[in-house]
């Protein structure tokens, strides 16, 4: 079996695992009845993955807007939001988590008690997906802190486009220079209008 065939098989395997269970893959078309009812998507269309550091940007009100923005760029295959507090028993945490779950996000609880554990977990997952994706792919990272300086070049070296959403006053200036697109999370409603 050739390396190209191996990579294609691996990519299909990961797409089946990462996408919603009602995703149907054909040889030339993909269809997801969950998010795009009745609309067929060509495999040539860019895939989009959204990775959100909720610890860094705790703004659940923008969760749906981010998905709408992502869908405007291509076919959304991954939606993950990371925090250390998803398993807390308080009412506020459960309510926020339920909002994300209802929108189709996977809430990733990061239990390691080391500094930047959420960043490391997000970067590991994001890099892993980029390494096996053979298609045009845009990665949306909702974070804005300096650790993104490591991730962005790794994704771009694999031919992926990177868009960063940060919080005003909490953004790393280098990310603006490195990313293919840089926005503040509170700009999402205006971006959807244009």
Descriptive report:
This protein has helices at 3-18, 63-73, 91-102, 117-132, 148-157, 173-178, 188-193; strands at residues 23-25, 29-32, 41-42, 47-53, 75-83, 106-109, 137-142, 161-166, 181-184. With 194 residues, the chain is an alpha/beta fold. The longest helix has 16 residues, at 3-18. Helix content is 40%, strand content 23%. Residues 1-41 have low confidence and may be disordered. Strand 2 (29-32) and strand 3 (41-42) form a beta hairpin. It is globular, with a radius of gyration of 17 Å. The chain has 7 helices and 9 strands, in the order αββββαβαβαβαβαβα. The strands form 2 sheets. Strands 6-5-4-7-8-9 form a 6-stranded parallel β-sheet, with helices on both faces. Strands 1-2-3 form a 3-stranded antiparallel β-sheet, with no helix packed on it.
């Amino acid at each position: 079996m050739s390396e190209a065939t191996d990579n294609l098989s691996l990519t299909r395997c990961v797409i089946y695992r990462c996408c919603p269970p009602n995703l149907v893959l054909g040889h030339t078309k993909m269809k997801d009845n969950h998010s795009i009812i009745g609309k067929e998507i060509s495999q040539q269309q860019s895939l989009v993955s959204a990775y959100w550091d909720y610890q860094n940007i705790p703004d659940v009100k923008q969760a749906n807007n981010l998905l709408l923005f992502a869908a405007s760029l291509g076919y959304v295959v991954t939606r993950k939001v990371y925090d250390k507090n998803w398993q807390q028993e308080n009412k506020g945490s459960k309510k926020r988590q339920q909002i994300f779950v209802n929108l189709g996000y996977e809430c990733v609880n990061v239990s390691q008690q080391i500094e930047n554990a959420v960043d490391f977990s997000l970067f590991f997952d994001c890099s892993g997906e980029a390494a096996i994706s053979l298609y045009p792919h845009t990665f949306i990272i909702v974070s804005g802190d300096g650790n993104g300086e490591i991730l962005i070049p790794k994704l771009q070296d694999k031919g992926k486009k990177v868009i960063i959403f940060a919080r005003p006053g909490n953004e790393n200036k280098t990310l603006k220079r490195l990313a293919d697109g840089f926005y503040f999370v509170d700009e999402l409603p205006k971006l959807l209008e244009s």
